[in-house]
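Please discuss these two lines.
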Amino acid sequence: MRTKTILITIVILVTLGMLLAACGSKAKSTATQPSAPAQQPADKPTVAPASGGNGEALLNDRCTKCHSLDRVTSAKKSASDWEKTVTRMVGKGAKLTSDEQKVLVDYLAKTYAP
């Protein structure tokens, strides 16, 4: 009976050792992989482009991830003010290429002018 208990204990310890070794090797392999860059270049699209460079589609696809449309539609700004706003939002993480920014600013300036 005592031999059986010792044998079971050995099997459990060997199994645990194998599990720990497997976990340890996974931790090492992920630690040696290079980390992803913190930010992608501004001109490299990180989100699928909105339909055909349409300003309204960009507004709906990108801006409404953080804001309601009411926030935009209630604002009345000049083209230069919209450009400042869009630039500020890109600085806060909005995913827009420089071409998309121009399309969006043009749309906002035409649609929501003072």
Notes: The CA atoms of residues 54 and 107 lie 8 Å apart. Residues 2-31 form the longest helix (30 residues).
